[in-house]
Amino acid sequence: MLQEFRTFIARGNVLDLAVGVIIGGAFATITKSLTDDLILPVIGAVFGGLDFSGFFVRLGPIPASYTGSPTNYAALKEAGVPLFGYGAFVSVVINFLILAFLVFLLIRFVNRAIAAVHKAEEAAPAADPADVVLLREIRDELKKRPGA
User: Fold this and answer.
1) Contact yes or no for 79/63 (Cβ under 8 A)
2) How far apart are the C-alpha atoms of 92 and 95, rounded to whole Å?
3) Quick one: which of 62, 91, 59, 94 has its CA closest to 75?
4) Among 21, 49, 92, 133, which has the highest number of CB atoms less than 10 A from its own CB?
5) pLDDT tens digits for 29-47?
């Protein structure tokens, strides 16, 4: 069983998948920062200070020991207050849409590049097989001989 597992792990597609997951995780972090630090603040400024993280519904009481703001989602969540955080969900949906659009653009670019390579290959004349080239050389040598 250990040998089978070693063979499975050593396959190229498993290693490619692992690299893809790692890069995907890093790409998701970049996309989250893009959304949280650049896009959502601009949307908030356009719509008059709209902050998606502030959109939530409190589902339970605030503990008596809580001293923070009753409108701070992160602090209430940390204090253990049950919350329905639909603003955080909106942020995640926007992150997903941005990530999906970027992946779409990447795939579109790759598909166009592959199509251009195939088009260039089709336009280039095909090289003659080695045996045809050899037969032509033999024919040309025979033509050079006297009496041929």
Assistant:
1) yes
2) 5
3) 62
4) 92
5) 888 888 778 887 787 778 7
